[in-house]
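Example 3.2
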Amino acid sequence: MTTSTITTWPTHHFYAMGSHMTAWLELADPCRAQATLQQVEALFHAAEARLTRFRPTSELAQVNAQAGRWTPVSAVFWRVLTRALHLSQATDGLFDPTVLNAVEATGYDCDFAELEQQPLQKRVRRLSVAPLTTRQLRGCWQTIELDPAQHALRLPSGVRLDFGGIAKGETAQQAVAFLSQWGPCLVDAGGDLVAGDAPSGSPGWLVGIANPSAAAEPERDLAQLWLKNSTLATSGIDYRRWQQGGVTAHHLIDPRTGATAQTDLLTVSVLAADAAVAEAWAKAALIAGATVGGELLHQRQLPAALVDHQHQLTLTAALQPFVQIT
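Structure, written as tokens:
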């Protein structure tokens, strides 16, 4: 997704959670605005330090290392975990936070910025583990045991968690809640957009559903809409791609097979009041494919935009009133 207009409001750019981030805040005092936006960056870095899979010191890495044992977790971790499992159930397992083994088996075993810097033809998995069976690669969210009274969980031996976009979306929503104390705001978390109140004199923040990056005109928005007090999250296979064993791979795993998702869609964008809901359903619909994914979104009356491999845009009925085709 893109932000389709450049505003005069104070803006802050930074890198966190494997993504380029931007935050806008409508505040007349530029010094106070910049100081406030800096706190948003700090919020993202704190969440990343706790929830990233790329740091052995993170709480997520420590929990994964304790698989097979009961492990107490922080309130932040517990909130993200329970949201993820609730959405796994809601999507009938199409969204599943337990497919980290499969993600790494495809070659996505380091931050994508590092992955991009490595020559594709020399890309070698660095994991020193025995080959995993299909059963070990498939999603298994139902097997996680929870103790709500103690905020503790037990992962089955060999199962590891990866919250990915859910953690990013939850953090972006917290950032908007914080910024909204000061004025209208928008956070672009690597293309996932979370908006607070509309800026002065506008019905919302004008944002775009981008043409996937493989297109001849990637800079052209396929559609635009006004976003306020809601989230527009996108899941796609057009950007995070690499060569693994001579085959093009991407980061989205089908939990049903434990393999890279075979889908006729390039991107799915979902509009929702809740960032985690938008994130999970965008991924679930993309994995399910145009026909099944579109029907799932329609059944739940979720506003969404689906872009296929021919760069054709399909809007669910619930989204059509919000957008203007460009």
